[in-house]
């Protein structure tokens, strides 16, 4: 049984009920998500061979502080960094460190800022210098998977429609969809209900209703979908060491579809790749 609750009367913890937000919350999310998108735009000029991922983490922290925002990951469940940097075969939750990026790497940078209590959550892939065609194709497939998932969002559909759209496309492109991690409700809480699976059937999952806010963040592998978490308790990698990629947007369900809160102000939603012909 799925329960829906008006967000204004919901407790400040994840109870399993799905929050339905109003216009004031949507405006708050626009502000938080716009700042996150601006940071990700700025990082396009920062990422380069030889740059330690610790420097990316400092940039994210300082950008947030300069703009009155707190990185949501900082001290979240013991995590000590302001961002996640996931390189090559790292699926998600890569921890920034002193190791420099290398020519040909691909790196996902995941940023969530808290602005006036609202969480703006997004991530993008960044090519490091010149990358191989297989890596570029993975980025293209992953971004298109995200777009197809977003296109499935509308009131009356089910969350499974998002997963089906992503899975059908990615697997047709001979890639695999990670099952171990998913999108999630977001807004007043960092992680909330419902879970947004990136695979499944259109007939499955909770019904989408106007006012819901959540992330869609498919993780797509060139090899098999299986992952493992390393001893640090955070870093998830592909078991076969194949390349993995992820793009993430925060969206809100509207009367006739959805609003993408984390769109790039500078048109850099897929930095380093050719513009889409749409």
UniProtKB/TrEMBL annotation:
Top-level EC class as recorded in UniProt: hydrolase
InterPro entries linked: Creatinase/aminopeptidase-like, Pept_M24, Pept_M24_MAP, Pept_M24A_MAP1
UniProt KW Zinc keyword: no
Binding site for a divalent metal cation 1: 110, 121, 248
Catalysis performed (reactions): Release of N-terminal amino acids, preferentially methionine, from peptides and arylamides
Record-listed E.C. numbers: 3.4.11.18
Coiled coil spans: none
GO CC annotations, alphabetized: cytosol
Pfam families for this protein: Peptidase_M24
Subunit and interaction comment: Monomer.
Official protein name in the record: Methionine aminopeptidase
Organism: Rhizobium grahamii CCGE 502
């Amino acid at each position: 049984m799925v329960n829906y609750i008006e967000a204004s009367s919901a407790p400040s913890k994840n109870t399993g009920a799905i929050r339905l937000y109003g216009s004031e919350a949507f405006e708050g999310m626009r502000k938080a998500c716009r700042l996150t998108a601006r940071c990700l735009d700025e990082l396009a000029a920062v990422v380069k061979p030889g740059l330690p991922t610790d420097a990316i983490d400092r940039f994210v922290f300082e950008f947030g502080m300069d703009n009155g925002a707190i990185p949501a990951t900082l001290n979240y469940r013991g995590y000590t960094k302001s961002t996640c940097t996931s390189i090559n075969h790292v699926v998600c939750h890569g921890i920034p460190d002193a190791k420099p990026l290398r020519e040909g790497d691909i790196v996902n940078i995941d940023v969530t800022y808290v602005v006036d209590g609202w969480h703006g959550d997004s991530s993008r892939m960044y090519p490091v210098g010149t990358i191989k065609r297989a890596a570029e194709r993975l980025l293209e497939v992953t971004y298109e998977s995200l777009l197809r998932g977003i296109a499935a969002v509308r009131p009356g559909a089910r969350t499974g429609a998002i997963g089906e759209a992503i899975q059908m496309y990615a697997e047709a492109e001979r890639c695999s969809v990670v099952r171990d991690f998913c999108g999630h409700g977001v807004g007043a809480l960092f992680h909330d209900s419902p879970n947004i699976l990136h695979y499944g059937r259109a007939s499955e999952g909770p019904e989408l209703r106007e006012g819901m806010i959540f992330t869609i963040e498919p993780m797509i592998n060139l090899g098999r979908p299986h992952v493992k978490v390393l001893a640090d308790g955070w870093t998830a990698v592909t078991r076969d060491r194949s390349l993995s990629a992820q793009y993430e947007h925060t969206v809100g369900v509207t009367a006739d579809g959805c609003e993408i809160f984390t769109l790039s102000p500078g048109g850099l939603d897929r930095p380093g790749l050719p513009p889409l012909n749409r």
